[in-house]
Design goal:
With 158 residues, this protein is α+β, with helices and mostly antiparallel strands. Helices cover 18% and strands 36% of the residues. It has three helices and eight strands. The strands form two sheets. Strands 5-1-7-6 form a four-stranded mixed beta sheet, sandwiched between helices. Strands 2, 3, 4 and 8 form a four-stranded antiparallel beta sheet that branches. The longest helix has 13 residues, at 48-60. The radius of gyration is 16 Å and the shape is globular.
Length: 158
Amino acid sequence: MNHPRWKPSVTVAAVIERDGRFLLVEEETADGLQFNQPAGHLEAGESLLHAVAREAMEEAAHLFTPEYLIGVYQWPRPQGDAVYLRFAFAGRARESDPARALDEGIVRTLWMTPEELRATRARHRSPLVLQCVEDWLAGRRYGLELLRHYDCDTGSPR
């Protein structure tokens, strides 16, 4: 079947582990309150690395430095209204900025163990939430040199 205008929604996610717990956000969605990593859409002209750092700050008030690509995930929503192409990154996060307001719709941040994540999978925004953590725990870590972002103005890689 030919779909000339079809394109996936490109998203990024920050997988942040500290002391065996993972940083999540609880957010308002059309399906109620759900858990997700700090994540969101790639914006026009933005690099994947800049996008994931921005999303971690906006959604969780954490300064995030991506160090690894965990994986690239293609997920069609069961409703058939969207296909997401998620780039999941792991890295370091500094302490949160308690004075910074979180994005609209984010209720709170929390740290969950892998066991807690597995037990709450029915409240995950997508199956990618747990899969990214499982892949991280399985040792999936790819160097950021896999990524090349070209500047629109100069055509040069950054």
